[in-house]
Amino acid sequence: VSETPHEPLVRRLLEGDRAALARVLTLIDRRPAEAAAIDALLARRTGRAGTIGITGAPGAGKSTLVGSLLKSAVRRNDRVAVLALDPKSPFTQGAVLGDRLRMEHTTADERVFVRSMTAETRAGGLALATPFAIRALDAAGWPWVLIETVGVGQTEFDIVEAATTTVVVMTPGTGDEVQSVKAGLMEMADVFVLNKADRDGASCARLDIERAVHHLPASAWKPPVVETVASEDRGTDGVWDAIARHRKHLIDSGEMVRRQQRLLRLALHGLIDADLQQRTNSLLASDEFSSVLSHLQSGDCDLGGATRDLLARLLRT
Ligand SMILES: Nc1nc2c(ncn2[C@@H]2O[C@H](COP(=O)(O)OP(=O)(O)OP(=O)(O)O)[C@@H](O)[C@H]2O)c(=O)[nH]1
Ligand SMILES: [Mg+2]
Predict the structure, then answer these.
(1) Predicted confidence (pLDDT) per residue in 17-34, tens digit
(2) 59 lines ligand 1 (CB under 6 A)
(3) What is the per-residue pLDDT across 219-275, written as a single tens digit (0 to 9) for each?
(4) Closest Cα to residue 148, out of 67, 239, 233?
(5) How far apart are CA 274 and CA 22, in angstroms?
(6) Is residue 198 within 6 Å of ligand 1 at its C-beta?
(7) What are 85's strand-pairing partners?
(8) Is the CB of 58 under 6 A from ligand 1?
């Protein structure tokens, strides 16, 4: 059996070669069509990493927290990879650049790997490349993968939810708590971080969050609330402790297997979505489609029938 062109590269990735990992992530990001072929080569080595989604309202301090979590991890001699998801909006480019610069002082350390990706979302609000990037980092042997999104929009929920541990960052005195309940953030949190705990109203905010947690449907895991001042590196060790406890809970309860399936589900959904979109585009450009349009116009067929015929053709090819 001859080697596929990606095989030597993936082999180096599995051996822990950082440059190979970076190259694979670039391939996945730029040519999502090849992501599945690459994934096939590393799939057996996935399933070991704890993946941590970090989300919260814009300005809550997510990027500062990630920087502080990296410093804390290095102090504890842990190894952490960060996947920073940039939205494709020109309005946020400045903020993203600033975040990258802030993280730079830790990225020289071999225990840390930082990568940003454009979370190009498709019709279904799905970033095709992201699940594959997470699996590549996992296969490369990074025990922790932090996934940071910029701001909270509906589109980011998918990927953050695909993490095995979801950290929701809140701040005091912004009415965050109430808004988050609306956005469904309360339900998805495994760990709450109350950041900017140096500000007024921290203890009130903590009580609000705890009250809201209390009203969630009963479950075996009660999301803890950890107070931090990320800008001063205070409280971040406690965030790691909460994440590690949650990971242990997932493994002990058997829930980890189900959580890991969420990522596969996203990857599959993304591939199916991309394939259908491509088929649809070529169908719309085909002669056959034009002829169906003429038949519709002359009344020889109806929209419902034409749709069924075209869909059947779409799926046969
Ligand atoms: N007082 C205080 N300020 C903080 C703390 N953590 C972060 N900040 C400040 O809050 C501002 C926003 O922090 P970011 O880390 O950029 O927040 P973000 O959630 O990543 O923001 P977006 O990426 O725009 O959604 C910055 O000016 C930080 O310096 C904190 O614990 N206390
Ligand atoms: Mg940020």
Answers:
(1) 999 999 999 998 887 778
(2) yes
(3) 889 999 999 999 999 999 999 999 999 999 999 999 999 999 999 988 888 888 888
(4) 67
(5) 24
(6) yes
(7) 117, 149
(8) yes
Across 16-79, where does the E strand assignment appear? 50-56
The whole-model pTM stands at: 0.87
Q: If phi over 0 gives left and psi between -120 and 50 gives alpha, with beta otherwise, what is residue 114?
A: beta
151 in contact with ligand 1, CB cutoff 6 A? yes
Spacing, Cα 23 to ligand 2 middle (Å) = 25
* Residue 229, ligand 1, Cβ within 6 A: yes
pLDDT tens-place string over residues 157-180:
666 667 999 999 999 986 655 565
DSSP code of residue 108: T
Ligand 1 pocket test target in 66, 152, 231, 239 with most atoms within 8 Å of CB:
231
The encoded tokens of residue 84 equal: 């920073």
Give me ligand 2 centre to Cα 112, in Å. Answer: 18
Handedness of CA 292, 297, 301, 305 (dihedral sign): positive
